[in-house]
Amino acid sequence: MNSINHREPRTDRPHVRRAVRLSAMLTLISSLVVSTGGSALASEASPSAREMAVGSRLVNGDGDTSGKCLENAGGRGGPSLQMAPCHTNAHQSWYFHQLGSGYVQIRSHDVDAADKCITSYGHGDPMRMEFCDGGDHQRWWTGRQASPGWMQLSASNPGFSVCLDVKEHGESNIVQAWECGASNQGNQLWKWHSVG
């Protein structure tokens, strides 16, 4: 029969004391999460962290842009936003950052566009991604629903009403700010499509 000497670990060593303390802290934290169902930690998460959990593509409702999604094309020169064939990469993954009263900032999951929002400076201007600053040129109203699942996105710029629009009635890949048309105008209609 083999006899193995078992010795208790020496707790007078600094690295052992740290390991024991760390283990005790982790045990305490895990018991708090289990006892509260995780709600204490979830309530402290920032709104943007909660919203970033789900990403979706924004598909345009015009028949001429079928199969195309809103894309952050930043860093390639020209307008920052364009319509492009749909795919699952992050530069076509968007989310609404809720501002209240039906207003949102439209943000990208693309690492290259971190802390940037879709920005409109006025009628006819190409849409671009710029750092989120809380200005009216980055506030979009989602309250105008056209048909189930479809919406117009109108900027809250003072003095004019513009919508997120695919140029030339959807026959272009350029995304611009344009005067809001009828709520059934396809090149101004947008729908969420889950990124799969």
TrEMBL record:
The keyword Manganese does not apply. Coiled coil: none annotated. GO terms for molecular function: carbohydrate binding. InterPro entries: Ricin_B-like_lectins (IPR035992), Ricin_B_lectin (IPR000772). It comes from the Bacteria. This is Ricin-type beta-trefoil lectin protein. It comes from Nonomuraea fuscirosea. The keyword ATP-binding does not apply. Keywords: Lectin. SMART domains: RICIN (SM00458). Residues 55-193 form the Ricin B lectin domain. CDD domains: beta-trefoil_Ricin-like.
